[in-house]
Amino acid sequence: MLKGKTALVTGSTSGIGLGIAKALAEQGADVILSGLATDAEADALKAEISDAYGVKAGFSGANLTDPDAIEGMMGYVARDFGGVDILVNNAGVQHVSPIEDFPVSRWDLIIALNLSAAFHTTRIAIPYMKEKGWGRIINTASAHALVASPFKSAYVAAKHGIAGLTKVVALEGAEHGVRCNAICPGYVYTPLVEGQVADTAKARGISEEDVKRDVLLAAQPTKEFVTTDQIGAFSVFLCSPGADSINGAIMSMDGGWVAQ
Ligand code: NAD
């Protein structure tokens, strides 16, 4: 279904981004992976995807907190792949701390990576999409784009910001065949959440098992983690003709968390 399209998925060396990249590649899209990885790790991931799905795979190790590095990544994609048809803004990190102790450097990093990076990739990618009259932008937001939790000031602020950015880009692209939507997962058991379990245990003075049961899955009525395969499948749907009228939507995949 996506043969002839090029997808850039930021933060795709692990977790949700890798799940989305594989799902898009399975549909025939050429894929550019991004993230913090050694050359050997990046080569292994590229080979895994091109061997499994028979598509062209690229990689950018750009530090997405740096707008100049983002310009460099987008230049590489334009040169080697022609441009981006499907942009998935997914890279993100978390930090858990009461606001009075929240390190200013972590606030700045989370706003730069989880929010501003999506602004930069989008502003650079969208002229090509408008010219072609087709483009799909998917922002990995979070249940925290819709509701808050304590100790996550920067993350919740950035994710609410991503929801707003999604709506603006949806309006600007609407008459040009460009669609922009946000997926809001609940808890997905990825390296990001593994780290968060440890941090939350420390912040709340409870064990890691208690955090999983009483803090994370307590919020998720299904009592199951969302899977990266499910998010990949939903992303594929958002790139399909059946989703052509879905635009500016902030969509939950959280087992019912924000329905409460
Ligand atoms: P992850 O830790 O598995 O992956 C994060 C990715 O971002 C990696 O590829 C990493 O290399 C990359 N990255 C980190 N810092 C970077 C930087 N400075 N420059 C470039 N790349 C960088 O995390 P994940 O859980 O898969 O999260 C992916 C996205 O999903 C994030 O935006 C996160 O907020 C969101 N999300 C995660 C969950 C969850 O429960 N895991 C829930 C809702 C939303």
Features:
260 residues; alpha/beta; Rossmann fold; 2 domains; seven-stranded parallel β-sheet; 8 helices; 13% strand; globular; binds nicotinamide-adenine-dinucleotide
> Could you say which overall geometry the principal axes of the C-alpha atoms support?
globular
Beta-strand content bin:
5-15%
Number of domain units: 2
Structural class: alpha/beta
Round the mean pLDDT to the nearest integer and report it.
97
Write out the strand line-up for the largest beta sheet, numbering strands in chain order.
3-2-1-4-5-6-7
Q: Count of helices?
A: 8
CATH C-level class of the largest domain:
Alpha Beta
Portion of residues in helices?
40-55%
How would the blueprint of this fold be written?
Layout lengths: L5 E4 L5 H12 L3 E5 L4 H15 L3 E4 L6 H15 L4 E4 L14 H29 L2 E6 L12 H21 L4 E8 L5 H14 L3 H9 L11 H11 L11 E4 L7
Parallel strand pairs: 1-2, 1-4, 2-3, 4-5, 5-6, 6-7
Helix pairs in contact: 1-8, 3-4, 4-5, 6-7
The structure holds nicotinamide-adenine-dinucleotide (NAD).
Nicotinamide-adenine-dinucleotide binds next to α1, α4 and α6.
